[in-house]
Amino acid sequence: MIKTINVFKSGAIVIASLLFFNNSIAQSKLRTGDWRGLLKLNDSTQLPFNFEVKYDLDIYSVVFSNAEEKIIANEIAIKGDSVFIKMPVFDSEFKCKSYGDSLKGVWINHARKEKNVLPFIAYYGNKNRFIIKNWTNYEPVVTGKWEVEFEPGTSDSYKAIGDFKQLNVKNDSKLTGTFSTEAGDYRYLEGVMANSDFYLSCFDGAHAFLFKAKLKGDNLINGHFYSGAHGHETWIAKRNEKFQLRNPDSLTYLKKGYNKVDFSFKNLEGKQISLSDTKYKNKVVIIQLMGTWCPNCMDETKFLAPFYDNYKSKGLEIIGLAFERTDDFNKAVSNVSRLKAKFQVNYDLLITMKTGAQQASEALPMLNKVMAFPTTIYIDKKGVVRKIYTGYYGPATGESYVKQEKETKDFVKKLLEE
Q1: What is the largest CA-CA distance in the chain?
Q2: Residue 44 pairs with which residues in a beta bridge?
Q3: If you classify domain 248-417 with CATH, what class do you get?
Q4: How many CA atoms lie within 13 A of 72 on its CB side?
Q5: Alpha-carbon gap, residue 197 to 212, rounded angstroms
Q6: CA gyration radius for the chain?
Q7: What is the model's pLDDT at position 5?
Q8: CA atoms of 127 and 123, how far apart (whole Å)
């Protein structure tokens, strides 16, 4: 989920090093097993996450865990006491030094231009995500659906649904769940409910999310949401099983006087591709507004890739419009090519050389606005836009994800049969 809020400020750290991703050059060993990582977000706040180091057939891999999600990074390099870990799909990496039972260095998110370098430290043999002091026997329960408001009382206020599950075990009260907004969801979150304190975090290679709050009756108060070093929002919540967000089909739409969209961008080989090309005539076409920096776009791509393979012969085409965070065409191609290979994407992927919701709106001036990535446009065989869907609810949302998948399949089948 990418919500367009103005939280970017200047600041960067330049890290110079030579990096080769080749496990055969390893000169020292990285301890295998469980690790607890910490990213320093500011002077007083650290984001915890878990990962496991594996070593098999002379090859290292690092498995990052967020609740049910497992992210496998296998581009690992070790030179002397230096360790380099490149994240899959997303353009980010760790550069650190090994001290046996600890790793110290930085995580660099190349998809961002500002505040994109975070200090990193990890400790071997610790499986705890959050370390709670002065634990009591009191086990407050937050399982269920919550009506959430971010930035309450401000002009930037927006609503969300909090869906949390709590598992009580000895000396622990594991908490999982996610927040769903009108722009999508915050994917897999994992943490703990301790005393009256609420903690959830996520690290997926693109985003570093940390949520904190205090439970008081049927309300979560004093909430804080950190997105890396660049974003901070307050939030509150109350139990509300009936709360709903606005229909995702109603948020982005064609301006008055339009019933079609058109565009022309280069594909990964540099060939100019247009929606008006013969290939797309008399076809049902899905237009995916996406970026390789966007985890919800990754979730949608993971769904669309096999869906396209199954329905291409029945008259379906899909075009992914990539809004990358770079003005270098070759770099954009490299980023998109990694996603293409990861998810075995066989539909067309185009490089727009634009980024952000505002530039996406400018690239498609027939739309009232683009408010989130991904945004998905469904076009019938006559070239008429039949639906525009804002955001994407990924597998972390459970029932919402299953419902969305079914509705998409049924809707596209209907268009194909027309």
Answers
A1: 68
A2: none
A3: alpha beta
A4: 7
A5: 7
A6: 22
A7: 40
A8: 10
